[in-house]
Amino acid sequence: MESSVQDNIRSQMRKGLVEYCILNMLARKESYVSEIIEELKDADMIVVEGTLYPLLIRAKNQGLLSYRWQESPQGPPRKYYFITEEGRKVLACMDGIWTGIINSVDKIRRGE
Amino acid sequence: MESSVQDNIRSQMRKGLVEYCILNMLARKESYVSEIIEELKDADMIVVEGTLYPLLIRAKNQGLLSYRWQESPQGPPRKYYFITEEGRKVLACMDGIWTGIINSVDKIRRGE
DNA sequence: ATAACTACCTTGTATTGCAAGATATTTATA
DNA sequence: TATAAATATCTTGCAATACAAGGTAGTTAT
Q1: Angle at A16 between CA A14 and CA A21, to 5 degrees
Q2: Do A102 and B107 touch (CB under 8 A)?
Q3: What is the pLDDT of residues B44-85, one digit of tens each?
Q4: Strands (DSSP E) along chain A, which ranges?
Q5: How would you label B62-78 residue by residue, b for 16+ Cβ within 10 Å and e otherwise?
Q6: Least packed by Cβ within 10 Å: which of A41, A100, B26, B66?
């Protein structure tokens, strides 16, 4: 199935990071899957449904997110996810981790 | 076995990134496992043997790295890894991917 | 009725990081 | 000569995530 080293790296580098991005988005405003995917695409961060649904369920089970149903102007009802207080705490922690990772990579790239 | 959400996130965020860091280090000078681990630790990027050995073998099999044996002043001989021309090409590509990821996360954090 | 659209969700695979081991060489010491 | 310590190498099994490729169901227009 021909997958280049580069494609794989791109995928691997994003492990865990997608959750961080989604918590960030939902910390600003609640949203549902299709809309989340569109907004991530606008930021050049492609994510597909098969990634997003399990992620949202995991985050909900961990108490980081919650959701509510809402009628759609057209089509079936939408499941709007929003961040919880616990989610905001974890997000703040993730901010520190992300900053730390950027600093570490930078040190290594510059040769310490 | 008590593992916090934060510990997990830290681990996941680093998927793929460790390879990028090691290619960067080996692009500057050849090195062997214990030394690589020490230098990563100096940059606050903790990596253990069980992570590093499989990674180096994979990168060698992909043609990104090669190695040579060298006697040690004390103890068993060391396996010095160094980057190949192909490895440098992939590293250049990964630079772009990493920069792109930082930009994407930044956009999302700022609210697009 | 039926098709198109939108929304939901699941299953199986590939990949990686890590804990917890095992094995082998050299050197110092009892 | 044993034996312990230090320094290397490497493997196995598990947990976690991203993705491809599916499936189900409600709403609306033809």
Answers
A1: 80
A2: no
A3: 998 999 999 999 999 999 999 999 999 998 889 999 999 999
A4: 65-70, 78-83
A5: eebbbbeeeeeeeeeeb
A6: A41
Taken in order A2, A5, A10, A12, the sign of the CA dihedral is: positive
A43 touches chain B (CB under 8 A): yes
- Nearest neighbour of B44 by CB, restricted to A17, A90, A100: A100
Q: What is the mean pLDDT of chain A?
A: 91
Q: Of all residues in chain A, what percent carry a pLDDT higher than 90?
A: 76
* Contact present, B100 and A15 (Cβ < 8 Å): no
- Positive or negative, the CA dihedral A83, A87, A93, A94 is negative
Calpha distance A56→A33 (Å, rounded): 9
Rounded-to-integer distance, Cα B27 and Cα B4, Å: 35
This prediction's pTM: 0.89
Nearest CA in chain B to A9: B16
pLDDT on residue A3: 54
Q: What radius of gyration, in Å, describes the C-alpha atoms of chain B? A: 16
For the beta carbon of residue A55, count every other beta carbon within 10 angstroms: 16
Q: How many residues does chain B have?
A: 112
Measured in whole angstroms, how far is the alpha carbon of residue A105 from the centre of its chain? 21
B36 CA vs D10 C1’ separation (Å): 16
